[in-house]
Amino acid sequence: MNSTALPQQEQPRQGPVLDIQGLSVAFRSHHQTWTTVLEHFDLRLEQGQATAIVGESGSGKTVAALAVMGLLPGYARVEARRLQAGNLDLLTATPKARRSLLGPTLAMIFQEPRASLNPSLTVGYQLKEAMPRGSTTAAAAALLAEVGMADPRARLRAFPHELSGGMAQRVLIAMALARKPAVLFADEPTTALDVTVQAQILAQLADLQQRQRMAMVFISHDLAVVSQVARHALVLYAGAVVEEGALPELFKHPAHPYTQGLINALPGQGDLQPISGLVPSPGQWPPGCRFAPRCPRASAVCHETLPPWLTADNSRVRCHHPLRP
Ligand SMILES: Nc1ncnc2c1ncn2[C@@H]1O[C@H](COP(=O)(O)OP(=O)(O)OP(=O)(O)O)[C@@H](O)[C@H]1O
Ligand SMILES: [Mg+2]
User: Fold this and answer.
1) Which of 39, 217, 290, 323 has its CA 20 to 30 A from that of 11?
2) How confident is the model at residue 275 (pLDDT cuts 50, 70, 90)?
3) What is the DSSP string of 165-204?
4) Rounded-to-integer distance, Cα 223 and Cα 259, Å
């Protein structure tokens, strides 16, 4: 080794920390048929970038994250043209090599905080398990303090049922950050919490993400929340991205009628205008544009052919009749 080389973790990264191209996920049903739930999914993140995935329930947000984490069940099929995290090609890596990424390279905060903690073990025990081997109690308390936990020493001795929802989520954030991951997936991390606690935790997460120069994929169905933590967003509809772009511009001037529909359905935008109709289930996606059956702008071509990507600088949209050029 060359004597001037930096220690491994300080070496500047070459290229993206996460590179996903053409990811698709299908699940096998009882009848041995495959149902695709996510298709054509692309996401490229450099160190320190925060992006969001938004979309209604069932659009495939969690599945996308779990596919990268390698945490989908055995009856799932994951395919991609490229699936790379850190320096590892996930398509060819051994299960052992993939597991070794969890913690230092990839970490995830799950949708349901309480279900992710073991009720019979103390917070301190579970937190130390997530930290590098031999971490001290003082280091565990410092980590809890960093995620905004009051009285961290006492909290280490607590069991999960003694924590409020907000405290439980702070413990999970601390566990996810314990090995300073290069990429953090935060899956609806504050949805289960009341608004005040939600705002505090979001601010803390955004601050930690920036200070640690961690890449973050923030998953939410709540557009208002997304702009507080991410600089870019992908809009997912029925298992495929329909639009992506920089924030807050994307939500100020959306190009896809579905994105516009999500914005119109936000409270506080005058009259609430929910998008009429229902999201089609996987296996029942229409040909052409999947949003066409619900789209006020749809014409014959929308029902027949999948729109091509229209690309401009930092944004792109998949629509035959976009709202702006
Ligand atoms: N383990 C599984 N087995 C079979 N189907 C699954 C499994 N997990 C998810 N799905 C299906 O995949 C699709 C996408 O689910 P996913 O959980 O990614 O949605 P989501 O966008 O995260 O929704 P939500 O906002 O409700 O969390 C859904 O149709 C769901 O029913
Ligand atoms: Mg989900």
Assistant:
1) 217
2) confident
3) HHHHHHHHHHHHHTT--SEEEEESTTTTS-HHHHHHHHHH
4) 10
> Which of 104-108, 128-132, 190-194 is predicted with the least confidence, judged by mean pLDDT?
190-194
Pairing of strands 215-220, 50-54: parallel
| Matching residue, tokens 């994951």 | 78
How far is Cα 107 from Cα 212, in angstroms, rounded to an integer? 14
260 C-alpha vs ligand 2 centroid, how far in Å? 21
Q: Quick one: how far is CA 264 from the chain centroid?
A: 23
**82 bridge partner residues:** 21
Q: What whole-number distance in Å separates Cα of residue 29 and Cα of residue 52?
A: 30
Ligand number nearest to the C-alpha of 38: 1
Closest to 173 (Cα-Cα) out of 194, 189, 150: 189
CA of 90 to the centre of ligand 1 (A): 22
Q: Is the pLDDT of residue 114 over 90?
A: no
Closest by CA position to 317, among listed 270, 266, 248, 260: 260
CB distance 61 to ligand 1 below 6 Å: yes
Domain boundaries, the chain: 16-105+181-278+310-318, 119-180
Q: Nearest residue CA, atom 6 of ligand 1? A: 27
Task: State the distance from the centre of ligand 1 to the C-alpha of 69, rounded, in angstroms.
Answer: 15
Tell me the whole-structure pTM to 2 decimals: 0.93
What does the pLDDT look like over 251-261, one tens digit per residue? 999 999 999 99
> Taking 90 as the threshold, does the pLDDT of residue 128 lie above it?
yes
What pLDDT sits at residue 249? 94
Strand partners, 25: 38, 78
CATH code that applies to domain 16-105+181-278+310-318 = 3.40.50.300
Tell me the two tokens of residue 2.
């060359």
